[in-house]
Amino acid sequence: MLTSVFRLLRIIFTVIRFRLDVFIPFTLLPWYIRCTLGVVCSIGRKRASENKGERLRLALESLGPIFVKFGQILSTRRDLLNDDIADELAKLQDKVPAFSGQVAQAIIERDLKAPVSELFAEFSVEPLASASIAQVHTAKLHSGEEVIVKVIRPKIEKTIGKDIKLLYTLANLVARISEDGRRLRPIEVVTDYEYTILDELDLAKEAANTGLLQRNFVDSDLLYVPQVYWDYTHRNVMVMERIYGIPVADIPTLNKANVNMKCLAERGVEIFFTQVFSHSFFHADMHPGNIFVDASNPEKPKYIAIDCAIMGSLDDADKNYLARNLLAFFQRDYRLVAELHVESGWVPKGTPVHAFESAIRSVCEPMFAKPLKDISFGQVLIGLFQTARRFNMEVQPQLVLLEKTLLNIEGLGRQLYPDLDLWVTAKPFLERWMREQMGPKRVMEEVRKQAPQWAGQLPQIPNLIFTALSQMSHQEERIQAQTDAILQLSTEVKKKHRNRPLRLLGALSLVAAWFITDPTSLTHLKTEDLASLGLFLLGLYLLVLKP
Predict the structure, then answer these.
(1) Which residues of 31-47 are buried (b: 16+ CB within 10 A; e: fewer)?
(2) 237: helix, coil or strand?
(3) From 64, 139, 221, 396, which residue has the greatest number of CB atoms within 10 Å?
(4) Whether the Cβ atoms of residue 111 and residue 235 lie closer than 8 Å to each other
(5) Angle at the Cα of 406 (from 400 to 407), degrees rounded to 5?
(6) From the CB of residue 514, how many other CB atoms can be counted at a distance below 10 Å?
(7) For residue range 290-335, what is the model confidence (pLDDT) as tens digits?
């Protein structure tokens, strides 16, 4: 807890140091804040606004990798930011201050257990690029292949651990004091993010993700994934094939190479939907620093993807729900959107569908007054969340990565080709996927998938049939035996209940005999003593009476 407090104080100090108050819209805040904090922050505010993009970038860099990741996501949303701020945040994608090349070399030699001179024919101590979690160096193997060597930043786990603790503290606070915060399920979201970013610290896992993504697109002309050299890969070090391409954000160079920007933007959307729906395995960190373009065929440019540390996946139910929702939304079938939300459990089962439908229509219908190419998925998500306050809709943690990636893709696509119509590109794919899920091809795939299990059970079928027939033939006997047992038990219970009053009378007789007996007159019996003896014998008989 104390660590989180110190980290929070550092964040506040960073906000003050870099004058990030220029991003706060004081005019929208309550009057008592405008009259106190607003007066203090207004001093020098105009001058501080001159280079606020640069100071925001420097502040995020100083706060560490989690905040750098946040800046990377923001940098792709030029529809939400001014160009000067977006240009500064774009530097976070691969221009984070590097750490010492000698330190990187020591990490490589420690993990791969050999001197760099033995591992590589050439090795550049100066890093080629540096990001929030790792940096890369160029090298050449003794066999002649050009490679890049990725090295995790030293002591990065400790910094991330502090930030995760702070995020948990803030998430618990938000969940306690805010009803809207509870609907966002902040603790689950932080847990999911912790799992994701800790995976990013293990380059062996990243190498495995890269291998799977490469196999998924092995014969595709849409995406190329570099080869991993497994003998040189460890938790803190990964060696991959060096690729040459144009950074996807370098628009002037792409234009100079006569790249078909419309085709490039549409192919990016197609790659995303192919990963999500066809492969159930998608690159979830698709900021421009991780994407390059092979412009050798300008009319059909090919993407090159690196940094597969953060990957996402959806199960069949999530994919089906997502596809049907997107199709229903763009067909303006708000009734189906509402029903799907209830069916999937996003809103409580008792939610009135007609009221929810009406609320969704009020949010979405104004968006269709614009051309489809101008509809922002980001604005749709914000609008739906505002609507959700009335219906207790919860954020699903398993879809957080997908939503983040979709926002990245939308921002990148609009940057490449401002007239990109995301719906025209995505709709045919979604409709084709839905047909495949319900068509004979899907049935045959399921048969093929289950065939080995069925084949293993086939020899047991005769025995199972014989056992079932035997059980059917003896079914009547078992039913009769069970009926007789139940009747016998019922008879015994009735007898016990029938004799219960007699036993009670016997107990009372024994008690009465005890009270009327005079112990001093046992040597010469009286009439009362004979009566007492009679009661005693009667009580004893009634108690031992068999049912």
Answers:
(1) eeeeeeebeebeeeeee
(2) strand
(3) 139
(4) yes
(5) 95
(6) 12
(7) 899 999 999 999 999 998 888 888 888 888 877 888 788 778 888 9
The C-alpha angle with vertex 378 and arms to 376 and 382, in degrees rounded to 5, equals 120
Q: Is 342 marked as binding a ligand?
A: no
148 Cα distance to chain centroid? 31
Question: Residue 135 annotated as binding?
Answer: yes
131 is in an annotated binding site: yes
Q: What pLDDT is recorded for position 52?
A: 80
Rounded CA-CA distance 114/108 in Å is 8
Tell me whether residue 522 is exposed, middle or buried, using C-beta atoms within 10 angstroms of its C-beta: 0 to 12, 13 to 18, 19 or more. Answer: exposed
* Domain chopping of the chain, boundaries: 2-93, 260-438, 441-473, 479-543
Query: Each residue of 171-229: pLDDT tens digit?
Result: 787 777 766 566 656 777 677 777 777 878 899 999 999 999 999 999 899 999 999 99
* End-to-end C-alpha distance for the chain, whole angstroms: 71
Report d(CA 132, CA 65) in Å as an integer. Answer: 5
Helices (H) and strands (E) in the chain, counts: 25, 11
- On whether 132 is known to bind a ligand per the annotation, the reply is yes
Integer Cα distance of 300 and 411 in angstroms: 21
Ligand-binding site membership of 129 (annotated): yes
| 140 beta partners | 122, 146
Task: Tell me what pLDDT residue 522 has.
Answer: 45
CA 442 to chain centre: 26
Q: Which of 186-195, 251-260, 261-270, 475-484 has the lowest mean pLDDT?
A: 475-484
**CA 356 – CA 340 distance, rounded (Å):** 11
Q: Residue 285 catalytic? A: yes
**Integer Cα distance of 311 and 282 in angstroms:** 6
| 120, β-bridge pairs | none
Helix %, strand %, coil % for the chain, to 5?
A: 65, 5, 25
Long-range contacts, stretch 12-19, CB < 8 angstroms, 24+ apart: 14/59, 14/62, 14/63, 15/59, 17/59, 18/55, 18/56, 18/58, 18/59, 18/62, 19/44, 19/45, 19/48, 19/52, 19/55
Catalytic residue selected from 163, 285, 307, 421: 285
Question: Is 305 marked as binding a ligand?
Answer: no
Instruction: Look up residue 58 and give its amino acid.
Output: L
Strand partners, 136: 129, 150
Find, among 158, 103, 91, 102, the residue nearest to 129 by Cα: 91
Interval 160-171 mean pLDDT: 80
This prediction's pTM? 0.67
Give the 3-state secondary structure of residue 302.
strand
CA distance 277 to 153: 34
Residues 281, 310 contacting (CB under 8 angstroms) = no
- Annotated ligand binding at 280? The verdict is no
CB atoms within 10 A of CB 110: 12
Q: Is 133 annotated as a binding residue?
A: yes
